[in-house]
Amino acid sequence: MTQNEAITNENGATAPLLLSAENVAKRFAGVPALVDGRIRLRAGTVNALCGGNGAGKSTFLGVLMGMLRRDAGSVTVKGREVNFSSPAEALDAGIAIITQELSPFLDMTVAENLYLGREQRRGRFFVDDKCMLSDAEAILARLKFNIPAGARLRDLSIAQAQLVEITKAISRRSDILIMDEPTSAIGEREAQMLFDAIRTLTAEGVGIIYVSHRLTEIFEIADDYTVFRDGRFVGGGSISEIDRKGLIRSIVGRNLLDHHREPKDTGPQKPLLEARGFASKGKFADIDMTVHAGEIVGIYGLLGSGRSEFVNALYGNEPRDSGQVLIEGKPIDLKTPADSIGAGISLVTEDRKQTGLSLTASVAHNITVANLPHYARKGFMNGSAEARSVVEHIKRFSIKTASPDLPVQSLSGGNQQKVVLARCVDTNPRILICDEPTRGVDEGAKREIYAFLGNFVKAGNAVLMISSEVPEILANADRIVVFRRGRIAGEVAGPEATQETLVHLAS
Amino acid sequence: MVSASQSMSGMSLGKFIARYGIVISFILLFVVLSLASPNFLSTNNLLNVLRQVSMNGVLAVGMTFVILTAGIDLSIGSLLALAGAVAASLVTGADAFNPLLAVAAGVAVGALCGAVNGGLIAYFKVPAFVATLGMLSVARGATLLYSGGRPIPNLSLEFRWLGQGLVLGIPVPVIIFAIVFAVAAIVLRYSIYGRRVYAVGGNPRSAKTSGINTSGIIFSVYVIMGALAGLAGVMLTARTTSALPQAGIGYELDAIAAVVIGGTSLTGGIGRIGYTLVGVLIIGMISNGLDLMGVSSYYQQIIKGSIIVLAVLIDRSRAGRE
Asked: How many domains does chain A have?
């Protein structure tokens, strides 16, 4: 580490640069996911990496962690230029990541988890449990983590399990920690525990890249901030030099706000879909919601707020403990997705690869799979009727594919998403539930999807749209219902909603 | 990413082999066996091959349905023996029933056991491997109980015709197999049901969201498999002129092998029943050719096992490249 790399922080003290990245770029199948990623992480500080979905944060972290090879740019760790080809190399360089989904070994003790793969031995073959246990206790005590080293991971809370992961990283002598939304699955009190841990670590000189959508905690814990938007670094500096509004402006930008749906015709509208008293133990409770004809209702909430769980229960994908559905004021018994489709409801699921598409099946078969009886006589498919309809859908959504018979996995993300939409529309629904309808979709396809949804409700239908992208929800929804910890935290009329109000209600 | 137009036109030799490798192997094998053994090409021997493969063919058709849903059925050899014993008991001795009743009974017994398999797998979420492994033992035990551990001989002439008869010079089992295959091919290719089998295998969660009764589909493929195992049991019993309680041991391997050699993916959703037919014929030709060349059946097992693994290995490396 050279002197000129040290930066002076606001207190006048110098903190050496642990990690710096410049102009990092990465493309997937020719599509740029990251154009210009940058960050400067000083020892003993927390740098909050902010950005909406699709800003390129995950790709950037992937490069830093050696999970992805960058196409261009440079990464310097402690004065040494690096280009990791595996996560192991990044670990060796002292970089560790604490992800949203932890993968601890639940039936092993804390100590066993800490030393997995590098167990302390007695002799050549035997594991020295005693020594491991006392070492683990020592390091936990040093970090002021109140966790018994002999406890099984199964008996710990999620937050405690995260602390174990952090301890593991520290015990490996990692001095650069990447925390990817560490508070998304834990409660307020536990979050404070985590923040205490972070303060202990920074006091020891560890640098932390902290990714979170919760602005309040960024202002509580971070020293610096770095903002990405559309794959580019758009701003960064000391957190003391920016306020909440300024940070939001930087995250959101203006590029999406030029799309604004015309507000729906005012005047009395009939409720099309009503959900009453929805509850599912441990997921959500007391959910009441009404969606009128001609309306896009947005659902906003952080990860784990119960928003996706609610719509999946509504649709019949997941069981629920209680909840009544009314369509045009009439109670209707919805237990399975087939019931919902029959009642005119269709669901665009959150993750097209996991739940949306049969990737190896053709574009055509994916489009018509929810509506097969419509194309059949006496159980056998009428190929020409099906083919005609498929061609229409491909045209209507301008799905770019050389042939309807190609496997859907050969299409780009945006076009795959349009195939999911086409399948949902194929059943002729009146109510379209979209869970993150534009996740991982390029800007052009996004606009096409928004335009489609706008026209869809104009024809007297309704849309229930979940999105964690605030600009998207602001630009499209007539009303926004905000979920927080399994309950409805509030409702905002579209024109009055701002990023502030939504984020405030959700966190 | 390979653009769509590229993959359509100008298919390279490598891709051609990847796509039609199984057919090419079949033709090569055919030519090699014709040259190696002068008897192989005789009409008599070819009909013999077809007769020999017809039982495994019927089983492989059912197994294609099961594997398309990413399942597996290990119990079919036992189901075959049980169905054979039940059918035989209805057409043995002096007071033999109508052979059609015996066929119906055999198929029904198979379907019933298949329904138990399917119910456990689809509704109680027992892994297919475990459920059908249990059935393998249960149905074999039931066969031994039912038959008292002895063969059931003296089957009526009409019943034996199902295994030994000829229509226009074509063995009856071959005709049965052809019908089963044709019906299955049409159902998989052109029916709603067939589409749903592929959809459930391709991505069960997506299929569920699309309103498909995924549990019902999974249940049904095991019933189909069971019924076809029952039918194969009837065919085998009629051909061997008595029901043997040890019949069908290891038959599941040949059926699975045929499906896998035919390129159907064990992870579900991908596969064509036409290629299963090629797989069935390849296995049949290998056995027959090795027989003609006087290769011991001990070696045959080793060779067959190696070919199965090789087929999957080729499939894997192909999938890896794509």
From this structure: 4
